[in-house]
Amino acid sequence: MEKTSIHGMWSSRTAFILAATGSAVGLGNIWRFPYMTSDNGGGAFVLIYLACIAVVGLPILMSEILLGRYGRESPVNTLIGAVRDSRASRGWVGIGWIGIVAGVLILSFYSVVAGWTLHYSWLYLKQLFGGAGITDPAATFGALLASPLELSLWHALFMVLTVGVVALGVEKGLERAVRFLMPALFILLLVLVIYGATTGHLGQAATFLFNPDWSRVDGNTFLRAMGQAFFSLSLGMCTMMTYGAYLPKDISIPKVGVTVALADTGVALLAGLAIFPIVISFGLDPQGGGPGLIFTSLPLAFNAMPLGIFYGLLFFALLSVAAWTSSISLLEPATAYLVERGRMSRKRAASCVAGLCWLLGLASVLSLNHWSHIQLFGRDIMSFIELIANDLMLPLGGLLIALFTGWALRETVLRDQLTGMPQGLFTTWRWLLRIIAPVLVLAVLVSAVL
Ligand code: PHE
Q: Whose CA is nearest to atom 10 of ligand 1?
């Protein structure tokens, strides 16, 4: 009989695609991608990011799903089983632990930023009912960052929402949340791109996004672009492994992998094409926008466009939902592990991990105001956590996953999970994992550290 997961199973291929896309598409695409592009020089960053998705991201995405479905347990236990079956070293289990630590670190600041989107949804909702508008977006954003109390409350609310879904479990919680909301977000982004086109600056924005200026590129650009690729695809911290554990056996991993990667990349590019025409048409500098980019630029457009308040509300509400479907996937690996240890209910486990993330998140909250003078390697605490977790731990986790799948796992396991994959593709995939992806990731990590 086919092995199933004690945590539940996705009801169909579509359910998995929605959940995995829900995990991948989030603040990474709509908040982080535009501002990373803005801070790292535009086109060259985007091209390196796209190359990383294709050559490193997609093969590792497939490995994670494969490993998960093979083990059908939380990442740590899946790896323990895989190591036993393949007589590999116990050291590989460390991949699962890197995943848990990275997940906790990422969720700690992710929830803070998601709190910003909740706050903006609230502002637009109030405005819809006659409240004051966002007349000076930079000032509004500045006021939010200056208030630790408000930041921590929105951060708390978002964490509670996340725990709620994870506590409900796979079918009831995760699946239901993504079914309608992801397509809605996609349509809204299209509306914004169309609006951007009417400003007459779509061409300029496209040039900024796709025309590489290689003089702006250094080792750091590669690190940030690669980190962004991992972050955006939810790779390197065993999220996709965890979701793969709930994937029925008859579904093709390459097909779902490609679908998720295309959807995720599509949304990021769409977000870029939506935001930069607006930035340019309002005379803002597309370079160096920083983490506030979408919060300071988009309200300008919502103020100017017909039905703007309504669109503003819809945009930030849907962005909150996109963040929500990602944050549940950040919480799920550690939760599933605690449940498997047998001493905690799902609800209890999710609450404990989320509580820890919330507390840690307070450091990010304070780094935006009272602790803004504290600098670690030239960054505030929040950007430092972001750098360590996204740009270093995720690629490192991904590198180890590639090596483990490529070299340590028995070939019969791979074949069994990838039945029907044409031989040529299988071989290409395996060599990407064995040599090409590891060498590229290592080169980028080493050059950045040096
Ligand atoms: N991919 C998510 C986003 O783009 C973030 C994420 C990273 C989720 C890692 C899970 C794991 O917002």
A: 234
